Amino acid sequence: MTQPEVREVETARAGDRAVSRCPHCGTAVEGPVDVYCCAGCEMAAAIIRDAGLDRYYAEREALPPRPEPLERGWEAVPVETDADGTAHVRLMVEGLRCASCVWVTENVLATSPGVEEATVSYATGRATLRWDPSTTSLPGSSARRARRIGPF
Fold first, then answer.
1. Cβ-contact 22, 35 below 8 angstroms
2. Cα–Cα distance between 40 and 27 in angstroms, integer?
3. Where do the H-state alpha helices sit in the chain?
4. How many CA within 13 A on the CB side of residue 21?
5. CA distances (Å), 35 to each of 8, 98, 106, in order?
6. What is the DSSP letter of 21?
């Protein structure tokens, strides 16, 4: 069984950078060859490949639609509250490309007012954020800071 074709970029360029595509969803990624944009696309491609459905990539006529942002935005994200009153949430972080991305994301989130803990996993592409809801909210400064550094 084969993986989706990885191709050399011929002429697609954005400024001086080559623009490649995720072989599963078609999202633009940086670099000279196509790579998966996120762990979700890599996993979906593996499931398709392992099921013997490689022809999906050859036969599809259009790229799959990307999920649309929630209409209610950050207010729609399910937040859990711990026994001590601390709120926490797990978020999917797209676009983590290296340990530096993880470090920057963790530190920007961790230094947000009211945030008690921020951890980001490169392996899973998830961030866990804990905060004191009496001093901040997810739709507040934490979300604004998160949107400035990357796609959540």
1. yes
2. 12
3. 39-50, 55-59, 99-110, 143-149
4. 14
5. 11, 14, 24
6. E
Task: Please count the CA atoms within 13 angstroms of the CA of 44 that sit on its side-chain side.
Answer: 13
Helices (H), 21-142: 39-50, 55-59, 99-110
Average pLDDT in the 63-87 region?
78
Report the Cα 106 to chain-centroid distance in Å: 14
User: With a threshold of 0.70, does the pTM exceed it?
Assistant: no
Residues with Cβ < 8 Å from 116, sequence gap 6 or more? Answer: 86, 130, 131, 132
Instruction: Tell me the CA distances in angstroms from 45 to 19, 82, 139, one per residue in order.
Output: 20, 36, 33
Q: How far is it, in rounded angstroms, from Cα 146 to Cα 144?
A: 5
| Residue closest to 109 by CA, chosen among 119, 122, 101 | 119
pLDDT digits (tens, 9 = 90+) for 22-65: 888 888 877 777 788 877 788 888 888 889 998 888 898 888 77
User: What pLDDT, in 10s, does the model give residues 11-26?
Assistant: 344 455 557 888 888 8
Which pLDDT does position 97 carry in this prediction?
A: 77
